[in-house]
Amino acid sequence: MIEIEPELIRIISFPSIDRSIPQKVIEEGGSFSFRCYRNKRLDEFLKELDLSEGKSTGIPTIQEELRNNGSPKARFFTDDGRRAVTVEILIHPDF
Questions:
Q1: Can you give the pTM of this predicted structure?
Q2: pLDDT tens, 30-77?
Q3: pLDDT score recorded for residue 10
Q4: 3-state secondary structure of 78
Q5: 85: alpha, beta or left? (left if phi > 0; alpha if psi -120 to 50)
Q6: Cα(52)–Cα(50) distance, integer angstroms
Q7: Is 33 in contact with 56 (CB distance < 8 Å)?
Q8: Residues forming beta bridges with residue 89, ordered by sequence position
Q9: What is the three-state SS of the chain?
């Protein structure tokens, strides 16, 4: 699900990132290695935007592109049960 608000874009993906990835790594938006793709539709959407390659590089690529654009880092949240992951991308202040 994608929500667009005046100050941010919020993407909620069901299910979340696998439990083998530490919560701290998710919150930092860093890179990690995992090869089980569970949300094919979101994966294809991000690939079309050149924000993912299907090689566990989506989160670092998103952060790099936002940094190159002068935008704040994306924020990543998930619950303890890992039912969903929420990504918040803040709209560039000059937009």
A1: 0.67
A2: 777 665 656 778 777 877 887 666 556 677 788 889 989 999 989 988
A3: 94
A4: strand
A5: beta
A6: 6
A7: yes
A8: 9
A9: CEEECCCEEEEEECCCCCCCCCHHHHHHCCCCCCCCCCCHHHHHHHHHCCCCCCCCCHHHHHHHHHHHHCCCCCEEEECCCCCCEEEEEECCCCC
The residue whose two tokens read 């299907």 is 54
What are the angstrom distances between the C-alpha of 19 and each of 16, 38, 66? 8, 13, 26
Query: Six-digit token pair at 86?
Result: 């929420």
Tell me the two tokens of residue 7.
């100050």
Alpha-carbon distance of 85 to 12, in angstroms, equals 6
Provide φ and ψ at 59, rounded to 5°. -65, -50
Match 């940094």 to its residue by tokens. Answer: 67
